[in-house]
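We treat protein structure as text, and this decision shapes the records that our systems exchange. Because each token names a local backbone shape, the row as a whole describes the fold. For reference, a complete record is included directly beneath this paragraph.
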Amino acid sequence: MDTATPPDSARLTFRDATESDVPALVSLIESAYRGDSSRAGWTTEADILQGQRTDEQGVREVLDAPAGRLLAVERGGELVACCQLEHRVDAAYFGMFAVRPGLQGGGLGKLIIAEAERTARESWGVGEMHMTVISVREDLIAWYERRGYRRTGRLTPFPYGDERFGVPQRDDLAFELLVKNIEGSGAGEGA
């Protein structure tokens, strides 16, 4: 796909991921955040974290969570993105978001997050979407802010020493909670 061409949301298929998707999902998530392949996109964390972003066990835990869903996003039958939704009382949590690096920057992410918000609102009747982002990822946080998310200043320590989350290359990492009111929001908001 030519990333300069605006994405056609009608050509995207959103579905719940299944066990058979696990290897492809791990590959997609790793390619979007770690190693040299991630540098083809703008979401890379390769300069701040090495090692893995997730593994098959981590993806299966999201698939098996009773209050959650892992959405697989396809175009022409090919996996191009994914995201996690988890129902947390009066909010939904958005995580494990990955878009294939060569397709980043073309508007897919914006369509996917809008669909995730709609899905959470309609499935669970929640009024807010929550997510955590590594606090030093200013470019990524700014992207979410343009989509209506706001920084809360609420930080959670990075799990240093737990290589399931990667091997930190700096000592100032933390997760910041971002929140968006999604009650009655439409797909055109936050553009």
About this structure: Confidence is low (pLDDT under 50) at residues 1-6, 187-191.
